[in-house]
Amino acid sequence: MKNPLFYAKIILFGEYGIIEDSKGLIVPYNFYQGALKFEHSEKAEQSNFHLKNYAKYLKENFAELFDTESFCKDVEQGMYFDSNIPQGYGVGSSGALVAAIYDKYAITKIDITQNLTKEKISELKCLFGRLESHFHGTSSGIDPLICYMNIPILIQSKDDISTIGLPTANNEGKGAVFLINSGAPGETAPMIHIFFEKMKKEGFRKTLKEEFIKYNNACIENFVKGEYSPLFSNLQKLSVWAFEHFRPMIPQKLIDAWKTGIDTNTYYLKLCGSGGGGYVLGFTQDYETAKNHLKDFQTEVIYKF
């Protein structure tokens, strides 16, 4: 039996700010994917072990919502999550797993193909947040939501989430949105802890609200409309702000590259997910020039314009 594939996701805009009710723009990233399968191998054994723990978690907390009997039985028979989504890279490895399990074992699934209302999306997000909290301690539910729906999502606020169309990519364009590999995974929980520690300070809360959220929301508006000149003006401010206030979340290897982008105005970097490691997002109006500055790093284009 062929199981559905679930793809990675990328938070283009809204990391951390989503927690404080800023806007967010999240897109599927089909380069990475995962599916539930049966196989006996070393890789399968490791994944199967994690699924056993998760099956226990579902049985204890969500027995009324899931066919936990079938899930536990399949896990005992060697089921695993076959995935090339890198873990700890901010692209939704646990989100794709949660989406796959919901799709296969939820007793009453919310149908996303018919009459998809904001209420249904909100209900799904809430449930997915509870399901994914097993992996990170806390979860907004956004990652599994985008992995499950596989369409771009615009977050206006915590309770206002909808699907959205994006400008058509231009594969011949010079501009690009790209990923930079920091070379090592990051851990979500410690980064979230740093953020909440910062939120205890009034000065940080003020600058987050008056500057970060303002630039973030403007970037989303510019990007969705395909207005690239104001987009890069706001990206520059966003990147400078993050360099000053999100420094502990920026992977150490990328600190200099981050500053070079700002100093030369050839590209701007921002966090991809919680940071600390994994991927960082880059935006440039001339990818070839940006690549020369970043020749020591592995880059991966996700969108051209």
UniProtKB/TrEMBL annotation:
<dbReference type="Pfam" id="PF00288">
    <property type="entry name" value="GHMP_kinases_N"/>
</dbReference>
<dbReference type="InterPro" id="IPR001174">
    <property type="entry name" value="HddA/FKP"/>
</dbReference>
<dbReference type="InterPro" id="IPR006205">
    <property type="entry name" value="Mev_gal_kin"/>
</dbReference>
<feature type="domain" description="GHMP kinase N-terminal">
    <location>
        <begin position="67"/>
        <end position="149"/>
    </location>
</feature>
<keyword id="KW-0418">Kinase</keyword>
<dbReference type="InterPro" id="IPR006204">
    <property type="entry name" value="GHMP_kinase_N_dom"/>
</dbReference>
<keyword id="KW-0547">Nucleotide-binding</keyword>
<dbReference type="InterPro" id="IPR020568">
    <property type="entry name" value="Ribosomal_Su5_D2-typ_SF"/>
</dbReference>
<keyword id="KW-0444">Lipid biosynthesis</keyword>
<keyword id="KW-0443">Lipid metabolism</keyword>
<dbReference type="InterPro" id="IPR036554">
    <property type="entry name" value="GHMP_kinase_C_sf"/>
</dbReference>
<protein>
    <submittedName>
        <fullName>Mevalonate kinase</fullName>
    </submittedName>
</protein>
<keyword id="KW-0067">ATP-binding</keyword>
<dbReference type="GO" id="GO:0016301">
    <property type="term" value="F:kinase activity"/>
</dbReference>
<keyword id="KW-0963">Cytoplasm</keyword>
<keyword id="KW-0808">Transferase</keyword>
<keyword id="KW-0460">Magnesium</keyword>
<dbReference type="InterPro" id="IPR014721">
    <property type="entry name" value="Ribsml_uS5_D2-typ_fold_subgr"/>
</dbReference>
<comment type="pathway">
    <text>Isoprenoid biosynthesis; isopentenyl diphosphate biosynthesis via mevalonate pathway; isopentenyl diphosphate from (R)-mevalonate: step 1/3.</text>
</comment>
